TrEMBL record:
Protein name in UniProt: DNA repair protein RecO
Record organism: Desulfocurvibacter africanus subsp. africanus str. Walvis Bay
Taxonomic superkingdom: Bacteria
Main function: Involved in DNA repair and RecF pathway recombination.
The entry's keywords: DNA damage, DNA recombination, DNA repair
Length: 248
Protein backbone atom coordinates (compact mmCIF):
# COMPACT_ATOMS: atom_id res chain seq x y z
CA UNK A 1 0.00 0.00 0.00
CA UNK A 2 1.34 3.41 -0.97
CA UNK A 3 -0.10 6.78 -0.01
CA UNK A 4 0.68 10.51 -0.02
CA UNK A 5 -0.22 12.54 3.05
CA UNK A 6 0.54 15.73 4.94
CA UNK A 7 2.36 15.31 8.23
CA UNK A 8 3.89 17.31 11.05
CA UNK A 9 7.18 15.73 12.15
CA UNK A 10 7.06 15.20 15.91
CA UNK A 11 10.35 13.39 16.40
CA UNK A 12 13.27 12.02 14.38
CA UNK A 13 15.80 9.39 15.41
CA UNK A 14 18.75 7.81 13.66
CA UNK A 15 19.70 4.15 13.32
CA UNK A 16 22.62 2.71 11.37
CA UNK A 17 24.73 5.32 9.62
CA UNK A 18 22.32 7.07 7.26
CA UNK A 19 18.89 5.72 8.19
CA UNK A 20 16.27 7.53 10.24
CA UNK A 21 12.90 6.88 11.82
CA UNK A 22 10.34 9.66 11.77
CA UNK A 23 7.21 10.11 13.90
CA UNK A 24 4.50 12.11 12.12
CA UNK A 25 1.16 13.58 13.12
CA UNK A 26 -1.21 13.22 10.17
CA UNK A 27 -4.73 14.54 9.51
CA UNK A 28 -6.33 11.17 8.68
CA UNK A 29 -4.09 8.42 10.06
CA UNK A 30 -3.26 9.58 13.58
CA UNK A 31 0.41 9.40 14.61
CA UNK A 32 2.62 7.22 12.40
CA UNK A 33 6.21 6.04 12.64
CA UNK A 34 8.00 5.46 9.33
CA UNK A 35 11.55 4.51 8.40
CA UNK A 36 13.49 6.73 6.01
CA UNK A 37 16.29 4.58 4.61
CA UNK A 38 19.12 6.87 3.60
CA UNK A 39 17.14 9.71 5.22
CA UNK A 40 20.15 11.60 6.53
CA UNK A 41 21.95 11.83 3.19
CA UNK A 42 19.39 11.71 0.37
CA UNK A 43 18.59 15.35 -0.42
CA UNK A 44 16.93 14.26 -3.64
CA UNK A 45 14.23 12.25 -1.84
CA UNK A 46 13.94 14.13 1.46
CA UNK A 47 15.23 17.64 0.67
CA UNK A 48 16.88 17.81 4.10
CA UNK A 49 13.43 18.30 5.65
CA UNK A 50 13.37 15.40 8.13
CA UNK A 51 13.48 17.49 11.30
CA UNK A 52 11.13 17.89 14.26
CA UNK A 53 8.47 20.61 13.86
CA UNK A 54 8.58 20.57 10.06
CA UNK A 55 5.33 20.31 8.16
CA UNK A 56 5.87 18.06 5.14
CA UNK A 57 4.09 16.39 2.26
CA UNK A 58 5.30 12.80 2.21
CA UNK A 59 4.89 9.59 0.28
CA UNK A 60 5.06 6.31 2.21
CA UNK A 61 4.42 2.65 1.58
CA UNK A 62 4.07 -0.46 3.70
CA UNK A 63 6.85 -3.04 3.61
CA UNK A 64 6.05 -6.28 1.77
CA UNK A 65 5.00 -8.13 4.92
CA UNK A 66 3.21 -5.00 6.26
CA UNK A 67 5.58 -5.02 9.24
CA UNK A 68 6.62 -1.39 8.94
CA UNK A 69 6.07 1.81 7.01
CA UNK A 70 8.75 3.15 4.71
CA UNK A 71 9.10 6.84 3.88
CA UNK A 72 9.77 7.20 0.15
CA UNK A 73 10.11 10.97 -0.22
CA UNK A 74 9.08 14.22 1.43
CA UNK A 75 8.84 17.94 0.67
CA UNK A 76 8.92 20.78 3.17
CA UNK A 77 5.70 22.82 3.41
CA UNK A 78 6.50 24.90 6.49
CA UNK A 79 9.40 24.99 8.94
CA UNK A 80 8.00 27.62 11.37
CA UNK A 81 11.31 29.57 11.27
CA UNK A 82 10.33 32.42 13.64
CA UNK A 83 9.08 29.96 16.23
CA UNK A 84 12.31 27.94 16.05
CA UNK A 85 14.47 31.07 16.34
CA UNK A 86 12.81 32.00 19.64
CA UNK A 87 13.76 29.71 22.54
CA UNK A 88 10.73 30.33 24.82
CA UNK A 89 8.36 29.71 21.89
CA UNK A 90 10.29 26.61 20.87
CA UNK A 91 10.05 25.33 24.45
CA UNK A 92 6.27 25.82 24.45
CA UNK A 93 5.90 24.07 21.07
CA UNK A 94 8.06 21.18 22.34
CA UNK A 95 5.80 20.83 25.39
CA UNK A 96 2.71 20.60 23.13
CA UNK A 97 4.44 17.94 21.01
CA UNK A 98 5.44 15.90 24.07
CA UNK A 99 1.83 15.97 25.23
CA UNK A 100 0.63 14.75 21.81
CA UNK A 101 3.06 11.84 21.85
CA UNK A 102 1.85 10.67 25.27
CA UNK A 103 -1.78 11.12 24.25
CA UNK A 104 -3.42 8.16 22.48
CA UNK A 105 -4.74 9.85 19.36
CA UNK A 106 -7.61 7.99 17.70
CA UNK A 107 -8.08 8.13 13.93
CA UNK A 108 -11.54 9.69 14.45
CA UNK A 109 -10.08 12.73 16.25
CA UNK A 110 -6.97 12.88 14.09
CA UNK A 111 -8.17 15.71 11.83
CA UNK A 112 -9.33 17.98 14.67
CA UNK A 113 -6.12 17.51 16.69
CA UNK A 114 -3.96 17.93 13.57
CA UNK A 115 -5.72 21.21 12.67
CA UNK A 116 -5.46 22.44 16.26
CA UNK A 117 -1.72 21.62 16.40
CA UNK A 118 -0.98 23.41 13.12
CA UNK A 119 -3.06 26.42 14.18
CA UNK A 120 -1.13 26.56 17.49
CA UNK A 121 2.26 26.44 15.72
CA UNK A 122 1.15 29.07 13.18
CA UNK A 123 -0.07 31.37 15.97
CA UNK A 124 3.23 30.93 17.83
CA UNK A 125 5.22 31.48 14.63
CA UNK A 126 3.32 34.68 14.00
CA UNK A 127 3.30 36.36 17.46
CA UNK A 128 2.26 35.12 20.89
CA UNK A 129 5.74 35.53 22.35
CA UNK A 130 4.69 37.50 25.40
CA UNK A 131 2.41 34.76 26.79
CA UNK A 132 3.39 31.46 28.33
CA UNK A 133 -0.08 29.88 28.43
CA UNK A 134 0.14 28.07 25.07
CA UNK A 135 0.89 24.53 26.35
CA UNK A 136 -1.91 24.81 28.93
CA UNK A 137 -4.46 26.07 26.41
CA UNK A 138 -3.32 23.45 23.92
CA UNK A 139 -3.91 20.62 26.42
CA UNK A 140 -7.35 22.00 27.25
CA UNK A 141 -8.26 22.24 23.54
CA UNK A 142 -7.01 18.69 22.81
CA UNK A 143 -9.21 17.41 25.65
CA UNK A 144 -12.20 19.33 24.24
CA UNK A 145 -11.52 17.90 20.74
CA UNK A 146 -11.36 14.37 22.14
CA UNK A 147 -15.03 14.12 22.86
CA UNK A 148 -15.00 15.67 26.33
CA UNK A 149 -17.15 18.76 26.30
CA UNK A 150 -17.23 20.19 29.81
CA UNK A 151 -19.91 22.72 30.65
CA UNK A 152 -18.46 25.91 32.10
CA UNK A 153 -21.61 27.99 31.82
CA UNK A 154 -24.21 26.62 34.24
CA UNK A 155 -24.70 24.35 37.25
CA UNK A 156 -24.97 20.72 36.13
CA UNK A 157 -28.03 20.07 38.32
CA UNK A 158 -30.17 23.20 38.84
CA UNK A 159 -29.04 24.87 35.59
CA UNK A 160 -28.32 28.21 37.29
CA UNK A 161 -26.11 30.42 35.10
CA UNK A 162 -22.49 30.81 36.24
CA UNK A 163 -23.01 34.59 36.51
CA UNK A 164 -25.60 34.02 39.26
CA UNK A 165 -23.70 31.40 41.28
CA UNK A 166 -21.82 32.60 44.37
CA UNK A 167 -18.55 30.60 44.87
CA UNK A 168 -18.96 28.13 41.99
CA UNK A 169 -16.85 24.96 41.83
CA UNK A 170 -15.77 22.78 38.91
CA UNK A 171 -16.46 19.05 39.39
CA UNK A 172 -13.61 17.24 37.64
CA UNK A 173 -15.23 13.80 37.21
CA UNK A 174 -18.51 15.26 35.88
CA UNK A 175 -16.75 17.89 33.80
CA UNK A 176 -19.18 20.61 34.84
CA UNK A 177 -19.72 23.61 37.06
CA UNK A 178 -21.75 23.26 40.23
CA UNK A 179 -23.32 25.66 42.69
CA UNK A 180 -22.70 25.03 46.40
CA UNK A 181 -26.23 23.58 46.86
CA UNK A 182 -25.88 20.96 44.08
CA UNK A 183 -22.22 20.21 44.72
CA UNK A 184 -21.74 16.40 44.79
CA UNK A 185 -20.70 14.96 48.15
CA UNK A 186 -17.87 12.95 46.57
CA UNK A 187 -15.27 13.61 43.89
CA UNK A 188 -12.85 16.43 43.28
CA UNK A 189 -14.39 19.92 43.19
CA UNK A 190 -12.03 22.82 42.45
CA UNK A 191 -12.62 26.55 43.00
CA UNK A 192 -13.84 28.00 39.71
CA UNK A 193 -14.19 31.77 39.56
CA UNK A 194 -16.45 33.28 36.92
CA UNK A 195 -13.38 34.73 35.16
CA UNK A 196 -11.81 31.27 34.83
CA UNK A 197 -15.06 29.74 33.57
CA UNK A 198 -15.42 32.55 31.00
CA UNK A 199 -11.85 31.93 29.83
CA UNK A 200 -12.39 28.16 29.45
CA UNK A 201 -15.69 28.74 27.59
CA UNK A 202 -13.82 31.13 25.30
CA UNK A 203 -11.13 28.49 24.62
CA UNK A 204 -13.86 25.99 23.74
CA UNK A 205 -15.51 28.39 21.31
CA UNK A 206 -12.41 29.81 19.59
CA UNK A 207 -9.03 28.73 18.22
CA UNK A 208 -5.34 29.59 18.65
CA UNK A 209 -5.57 32.64 16.33
CA UNK A 210 -7.95 34.30 18.79
CA UNK A 211 -5.86 33.30 21.83
CA UNK A 212 -2.97 35.55 20.76
CA UNK A 213 -4.82 38.64 21.93
CA UNK A 214 -5.73 37.19 25.34
CA UNK A 215 -4.28 38.69 28.51
CA UNK A 216 -4.78 36.47 31.54
CA UNK A 217 -4.22 37.63 35.13
CA UNK A 218 -2.19 35.31 37.35
CA UNK A 219 -5.08 34.23 39.66
CA UNK A 220 -7.15 33.08 36.69
CA UNK A 221 -4.14 31.43 35.10
CA UNK A 222 -3.41 29.37 38.26
CA UNK A 223 -7.05 28.34 38.65
CA UNK A 224 -7.21 27.43 34.96
CA UNK A 225 -3.98 25.43 35.25
CA UNK A 226 -5.32 23.44 38.21
CA UNK A 227 -8.63 22.66 36.47
CA UNK A 228 -7.09 21.67 33.10
CA UNK A 229 -4.35 19.65 34.76
CA UNK A 230 -6.76 17.62 36.92
CA UNK A 231 -9.28 17.31 34.08
CA UNK A 232 -6.65 15.94 31.65
CA UNK A 233 -5.33 13.63 34.37
CA UNK A 234 -8.76 12.20 35.13
CA UNK A 235 -10.25 11.98 31.61
CA UNK A 236 -7.18 11.39 29.42
CA UNK A 237 -5.10 9.59 32.05
CA UNK A 238 -2.05 11.83 31.52
CA UNK A 239 0.03 13.35 34.27
CA UNK A 240 2.84 15.87 33.79
CA UNK A 241 6.17 15.68 35.58
CA UNK A 242 9.53 17.38 35.03
CA UNK A 243 10.42 14.98 32.19
CA UNK A 244 7.18 15.29 30.25
CA UNK A 245 3.88 13.44 30.31
CA UNK A 246 3.20 9.89 31.33
CA UNK A 247 0.17 7.66 31.28
CA UNK A 248 -1.21 6.59 34.65
ZN1 LIG B 1 -27.07 24.06 41.31
Amino acid sequence: MEFTEHGLILKVGRFREYDQWVRLLTPTRGILTAFAFGGSRSRRRFCGCLDALNLVLFKARSSRNMAYLQLEESTLLSGYPRLKANLPKLGMAANCIKFLQAFQLGVDTSRAVYDLTLATLEALDDGGEDQDFWPLFFRAAVAFESGFAPDFKSCHLCGKNIEQIPSPVFCVERGSVSCQVCRPSTGLALPASRGTMRLLSHLQATGPREWRSLRVVSEIRSECYEIVDKYVQYHLGLRQNERGFHRE
